[in-house]
Amino acid sequence: MRVTHTIFADTIIRDADRNTLSIIDLYESFELTTFPAILARATLCYVIERDATDNQVTDLQVVLITPNATQPNQVQADFKDQQRTRVIVRFEGFVIFQPGEIRFELRNGDNVINTLAVSVTAIAPPPAPN
Predict the structure, then answer these.
(1) Which of 40, 71, 122, 127 is least enclosed by beta carbons within 10 angstroms?
(2) HSE of 97 in the Cβ direction (CA atoms, 13 Å)?
(3) How far apart, in whole angstroms, are the C-alpha atoms of residue 109 and residue 4?
C-alpha cells in the first residue's frame, strides 16, 4: 500500500457521479498574526494504491502531531475491488496554538506510510489604516 497524492485544503468535495474532486483553498503553509488561530475546518485527501496482496478494506490511522498534542484519528480505506481509493478526512474547528510545524502521519498499524508537514509562521500584523 502506498500514497500517491496528499492534498490539504479547507474543503475537498468528491463528486460521486463523475468521481472528481473539487479542492477549495489549498493549504501549503500558514502565516498568522495571532495565536491561537482557529480554522473552521481543514480537510486531508489521500490517494492510496494497493498491492495485489493488500486487503480490500484496511483500517488506518491519521495522526495529527503539533507542538502541543498528538491526536490519532481512525479512518478506513475501502478499495471496492479497485487498485486505488481516496480517503478524505475532515477536521472541524482546527486550532493552531503556536508557530512551528503541524504534521499528519498516515499509519497502517505501526508503519508510517505518508507524512505531510505544514509550517506555521508568526508574522507581524498589517499596519492599522489611518
Answers:
(1) 127
(2) 6
(3) 19
CB neighbours of 70 closer than 8 A, spacing ≥ 6?
A: 63, 64
Cα→Cα distances 11→1, 52, 110, Å: 25, 32, 29
| CATH number of domain containing 75 | 2.60.40
Q: Residues 104, 15: contact at Cβ < 8 Å?
A: no
How many domains, the chain? 1
What's the one-letter identity of residue 118?
V
Q: Provide the whole-model pTM.
A: 0.90
Q: What is the pLDDT of residues 103-116, one digit of tens each?
A: 999 999 999 999 99
Q: Range of 69's domain?
A: 2-122
pLDDT tens digits along 5-23: 999 999 999 998 898 999 9
Sign for the CA dihedral angle at 25, 31, 34, 37 comes to positive
Inter-residue contact 55 to 78 (CB < 8 Å)? no
Does residue 34 lie within any of the structural domains?
yes
Is 17 within a domain?
A: yes
In a domain, 129, yes or no: no
